[in-house]
Design goal:
361 residues, 7-stranded mixed sheet, alpha/beta
């Protein structure tokens, strides 16, 4: 079913072939990653622009960052490459409007790892990608999967928009939470997902286990847990640790945002597995958003998955291979899960969630 997608023209090929000037919309780390890929392909970027509210006379890669109106006056017709992540509805609507007016690409570059999801990557991994597709339990998930692969190749935002659905839909139709959940939150950030969990369970729960590697985020997590009235509490355990497959000392990028991730250089962070930390304590809902370390974190929770068969919500977008490698990994650890894909609104293809529900539908 996926082989026809190999014939799609990729955004990288289109950018290599265009005669129009190429302008980058955005700056920062995302733009640097895209510029790295374009430089590798010998593609030149003529200019940079940002939303009017962000333009304050600063420069990026030696060029003054312009407003869109200046770009329009300078070039007339041009190709836009978006280079930032956004989830607020007005900005996403503005990008879609630009896509109607101009040739626009929102390239998919990995948050972690080096594998670019291009034609060669899909061809090399086609058997695994097809196998993962066959594991998905409903038609919606299979369509999302195929549309996401089309988007990752082409960078077309229309393909991406079709894959999105509201967060509430995933919880109401798939991850139905009750008052006796034992919740493991790996990558708990500042406690926002614990707060969401409590809102969805009416403040009721059996246990909460949470891991967050960044010290600043961990302090915010503890403060929020106190504010929510659940900490200190014998039912709640919070660890300033990275989720991994065993005890380890890892190097993390020197930043304190949600995207704290394993890196080649940075600060040392202690890590451990969920299985080591909780022993045989039950888990009924397991959420992971660990910035590219999902495969190791799943290995570190394998005993809990086998023993308790919890509801799963696992981020599947940080690495290009996550879309197919993570479903196959869950299937190897515990066959019998019904696996679903849901993606919450975002540009580019962030917030892809692999959802696992044990047993027959």
């Amino acid at each position: 079913m996926l082989k026809p997608l190999l014939a799609l023209p990729t955004c990288w090929e289109r950018l290599q072939q265009t005669k129009k000037p190429i302008v980058l919309y955005g700056m920062g780390n995302g733009a640097d990653r895209i510029l790295h890929q374009l430089d590798r392909l010998g593609v030149a970027v003529q200019d940079f622009f940002a939303s009017d509210t962000f333009v304050r006379g600063h420069s990026f890669h030696g060029k003054r960052v312009k407003r869109l109106a200046e770009i329009q006056d300078l070039y007339g017709d041009f190709v836009i490459v978006t280079a930032f992540a956004v989830q607020d509805a007005p900005t996403m609507a503005a990008i879609l409007e630009l896509a109607r007016q101009y040739e626009l690409y929102a390239p998919d570059v990995p948050v972690a790892g080096e594998n670019l999801f291009d034609r060669a990557f899909l061809r090399d991994n086609l058997p695994e990608a097809e196998k993962a597709l066959s594991l998905l339990a409903d038609r919606r998930s299979r369509q999302i999967y195929q549309d996401l692969i089309a988007y990752k190749l082409t960078g077309q935002v229309d393909d991406l928009v079709r894959t999105a659905s509201p967060r509430d839909e995933a919880f109401s139709s798939l991850v139905q939470l009750g008052p006796e959940e034992s919740y493991a939150d790996l990558g708990a950030y500042s406690g926002d997902t614990i707060q969401e969990f409590l809102q969805r369970t009416g403040g009721q729960f059996s246990r909460i286990f949470a891991m967050e590697p960044d010290p600043k985020n961990y302090r915010k997590l503890c403060r929020r847990a106190e504010m929510l009235g659940i900490f200190p509490d014998s039912r709640v355990r919070l660890w300033n640790l990275a989720a991994w497959d065993d005890r380890a000392c890892l190097t993390f990028a020197p930043k304190a945002g949600r995207s704290s991730a394993v890196a080649d250089a940075g600060r040392k962070v202690l890590a451990n597995s969920l299985d080591n930390l909780i022993g045989q304590d039950p888990v009924t809902f397991l959420k992971m958003d660990v910035e590219g370390s999902e495969s190791q974190a799943i290995l570190g929770a394998a005993n809990a998955i086998r023993r308790h068969r919890p509801k799963l919500m696992i981020s599947a977008y940080h690495r290009s291979e996550d879309l197919f490698a993570l479903p196959l990994q869950i299937q190897r650890i515990q066959p019998g899960y019904r696996l679903y894909l849901r993606r919450f609104p975002y540009i580019p293809a962030w917030e892809i969630n692999l959802i696992g529900i044990w047993g027959e539908g």
